[in-house]
User: What shape does this take?
Amino acid sequence: MGILDNMLKFFKSDSQTISENQSTPKEPKTAIEPREQKPAVHLFKDEDLHISDGLTRRLNVEKLEWCLINGIDNKAVRAAVKEKERNDKIQNADNEFKAQRKILHQNLRLELSKYNLLRKDDAEIKKVKKSQKDLLRDEYRKKVDELAIKRNTIFAQAYGDKFFYDLMLDEDAIGWEWNLSGADSGCKICKNNVGKYKKGTGPNFPAHDGCTCLLNSVYKGEL
Ligand SMILES: [Zn+2]
Assistant: This one.
């Protein structure tokens, strides 16, 4: 069949559809029964459970709650519970950080307003006020940095916790590797920890507050 035939066929079928649509709809012979409203019942089976595969992946809390209510306790559920705890920890740490930073910022603005320049201020007073403001801003930044380190430490703990849990379950992995997050930005403190270790051995992670190091699984032939 040529292209023209196909096109003709296409237009023909198109025109048919239009004429069908234009005809008045026939009344149904049987009365339409109102649809029965069934209560939504979720039936999750053990094998439907999604095992955690990433720290940032959103956990299906609904499924997890169903399992816990129905007393289903298996490896997948336990992994999911653990991940939920970890995610909550991360979320809480982040919320706490943001809330405290907000308070610090409000205080900063209040303190800065005390040193607002006035027309009557002479040059010397202006200079003093300006340096006072700079000092307050520096203090604020320092405090926010401290808060961020506190939060990042909790992140690192959750990350390490997940990594070593998964490593334990991974039968193919024979070890793990400690890496710095970047050549320049990486931890100076952890330089000595860089290397490969057998499962169950090696330094504690995180090694210090605000550690940004990265961990990798090591497989046979890589150690
Ligand atoms: Zn470190």
About this structure: The two ends are 64 Å apart (CA to CA). The chain has two domains: 57-169, 172-223. Residues 187, 189-190, 207-208, 211, 213 surround zinc ion (CB under 6 Å).
